[in-house]
Amino acid sequence: MPVDAEQAWKDLQRIRVPQERVYDEFERSASGGRGTTYGTAALMWVFLAGVGMDPPQWGVVLFVAAYAVLLSALVVRRSRRNRMQLHHTRYPGRVWAAFGAAAILVGGTVVLADHLTGSLQPIHAGLIQATAAVAVYLLSLGPANRWAAASVRSGGGPAAADEEAGR
Q1: What SS3 string covers 28-72?
Q2: Which pTM does this prediction carry?
């Protein structure tokens, strides 16, 4: 049975285009948009600046509780607006690696800034720590999201570049 190459190509494109649109939508939604990114950064800055001012123990507990509630509200608001979500089994290791690397990077920045600002008054040290940590968060968020989302397009494989190159 002969195969018409042109018809096979059209059939492949008919299947591939909707799949590519799904991946494009996921990549757009992975960034979370400017509102979510800057909202998270502002919330992180207020939390770190507040905790960095050496409040009493009940103040730290209050800051942690308020941060958890507000961050949860931000996540819930974002997830309600999200038009698509991947099934939990479709999240490749890159997504979890990016999340873990970001946590280590921002946490390390807080520890390093705390060490470097130890001789300053708590109010100044807290502001410097918060600003440094949020700057690292914002600078690393975009590349990490693009790297993690690219692995979803390639099915969790080595790289999306191989697929885009037609290999």
Answers
A1: HHHHCHHHHHHHHHHHHHHHHHHHCCCCCHHHHHHHHHHHHHHHH
A2: 0.69
